[in-house]
Automatic annotation (TrEMBL):
Taxon lineage: Bacteria, Pseudomonadati, Bacteroidota, Cytophagia, Cytophagales
Membrane topology: Multi-pass membrane protein
The protein, known as: SulP family inorganic anion transporter
UniProt superkingdom: Bacteria
Transmembrane stretches, start-end: 20-38, 43-61, 90-108, 115-135, 166-189, 201-223, 265-287, 308-330, 342-375, 396-427
């Protein structure tokens, strides 16, 4: 049961939200940079979007725990959009227009689409994201991956795929990065132990913060005493350093409003709006399932919030944003309670850009990979698979198909494949249960009673038609709609057609509490 009455107390929750916001910031920082890099956008663009997503969208959104920012699922769309429009400034105008379209979709109540994704598909998405995080972070964990941090697609830009990248990584391990990764993972596992949670000090300090500070310290020791173990710059955070207001101004880019006459602009804007909206609706649906309080996100409000976020991000030079499941999962795993944690992550991103770039650029990616490995495991625990299996094949098969489809393609394609399988099982379930069937022998003929269920939709037509077609000759059939509040016209037409022609097979038909409808007759 969803709890919509939960009233957040931001001040009381600050003790949980502050460290959670810090953890989300540490995870989001390299993701913002990596996604910008992969999208062919300026490196600073991802940070702009992360800041807007944290500081602005967190308060406009109705979600308590989702975190918005640049999404790995949009990298190809951004890359193609910049190429199509030829300049980044023209692309920024498309981002602004996409935001306007999203606001319009929110007012048109298009958010209802999010309610039509089956639970098995959403859980499959979470499990798949968890598995992908684990598989994609292993090379970074070993200091052996030059692809961007946060990449999610199966086929990579370097020509390798998720699995070949791991096998390649074992041949080019950076020992210093691996040592830091292993120590970081050990600290995070220790931090989650029940006996550690009983110590008040350790409850206040997130394990991820200890990991980050400790990893910087260890690498400092490597540089000074064991230079052969020092981590290469390609496996450290790489944040642009802003030394003055003028330098900040130079990093910001602005839309080219002269592109309004370019027809391609509207195609790119529409594509961004639809894909970003779908990914957002999927993410908030998944976050609601992970939320310990089971609070319900108002989907139409979420679309409006994302729209405003994209308008502002586009005006300031940022790439498109969505609600993002990886950062949202990090928020929940770190103990976030209210939207304050997402806001705090945005503030930390802004402060990092303005004042902390020098320190943050010393953070090894292998330490952050350890954080994501733990988050990935929490999303795809074996108990999730066992729980889905116990629910039966109607739930388990769409769940597994979704996991595999996302793993071997990308998020949106995988979701659509899982959705198709989920819809198949929904149709199958509807096919089976539109009526109660009772057959008894009476002297020389069968008496068959078909009592229609409360709600008989067009989805039930195939089942009813096949049942009527297989009625035995010379039988007595009673079709009763006494319990039905609604019978779809297609079904009424099928019943009427059966009644009109049943005498040809010697079948006597009684139709009770079902209205007659005209049947198309060409004679």
């Amino acid at each position: 049961m969803k709890n919509t009455d939960f009233k957040p107390n931001y001040l009381a929750s600050l003790g949980k939200d502050m460290p959670a916001g810090l953890v989300v910031f540490l995870v989001a920082l390299p993701l913002c940079l990596g996604i910008s890099l992969a999208s062919g956008a300026p490196l600073f663009a991802g940070i702009v979007t992360g800041v807007v997503g944290g500081i602005v969208v967190s308060w406009l959104s109705g979600s308590h725990l989702s975190v918005s920012g640049p999404a790995a699922g949009l990298t190809v769309i951004v890359l193609n959009g910049i190429e199509t429009l030829q300049t980044y400034e023209a692309f920024l105008l498309a981002v602004v227009l996409a935001g306007v379209l999203q606001v319009a979709l929110g007012f048109l109540k298009a958010g209802v689409i999010g309610l039509y994704f089956p639970s098995s598909v959403i859980k499959g998405m979470l499990a798949a994201i968890g598995l992908i995080l684990i598989l994609k972070q292993i090379p970074h964990f070993m200091g052996a991956d030059d692809d961007f941090f946060g990449e999610m697609n199966f086929f990579q830009l370097d020509g390798r795929n998720t699995f070949t990248e791991i096998s390649h990584a074992f041949g080019v391990i950076e020992v210093g990065a691996l040592i830091i990764g292993l120590l970081s993972l050990a600290i995070l596992i220790l931090w989650d132990m029940p006996f550690m949670k009983r110590i008040k000090l350790f409850k206040l300090i997130p394990g991820a913060l200890i990991v980050v500070v400790g990893s910087v310290g260890i690498n400092y020791l490597f540089i000074n005493f064991f230079p052969e173990l020092a981590i290469a710059g390609t496996h450290l955070v790489n944040l642009p350093e802003i030394t003055s207001a003028a330098a900040l101004g130079n990093e910001l880019r602005f839309p080219d409003f002269g592109q309004f006459t370019n027809p391609s602009l509207y195609v790119v804007a529409f594509t961004i709006a639809i894909i970003a909206s779908l990914e957002t609706l999927l993410s908030v649906e998944a976050v609601d399932k992970l939320d310990p309080h089971k609070r319900r996100t108002p989907n139409n409000r979420e679309l409006k919030a994302q729209g405003v976020g994209n308008i502002i991000a586009g005006l300031l030079g940022g790439i498109p944003m969505t609600a993002v499941i990886v950062r949202s999962s990090a928020n929940i795993a770190a103990g976030g309670k209210t939207r304050m944690s997402a806001f705090i992550h945005g503030v930390f991103l802004l402060l990092a850009v303005l004042f902390l770039a020098g320190f943050l650029n010393q953070i090894p990616l292998s330490a952050l990979a350890a954080v994501l490995l733990v988050i990935g495991y929490k999303l795809t625990k074996p108990t999730l698979f066992k729980g889905q299996f116990k629910l039966g094949h109607e739930q388990f098969i769409p769940f597994v198909v979704t996991v595999l489809a996302i793993l071997f393609t990308d998020l949106l394609v995988g979701i659509l494949i899982g959705l198709a399988v989920g819809v198949f099982f929904i149709l199958k379930a509807n096919y089976k249960s539109p009526y109660f069937f009772h057959k008894e022998q009476q002297r020389d003929k069968d008496l068959i009673r078909i009592k229609l269920s409360e709600h008989v939709s067009f989805l039930n037509k195939a089942s009813i038609v096949l049942t009527l077609e297989h009625m035995p000759a010379n039988s007595h059939v009673i079709i009763d709609g006494e319990n039905s509040e609604y019978i779809d016209y297609d079904v009424l037409e099928a019943i009427q057609a059966f009644k009109d022609t049943a005498h040809e097979r010697g079948i006597f038909v009684e139709v009770l509490n079902v209205k007659e409808v005209p049947v198309l007759d060409m004679h």
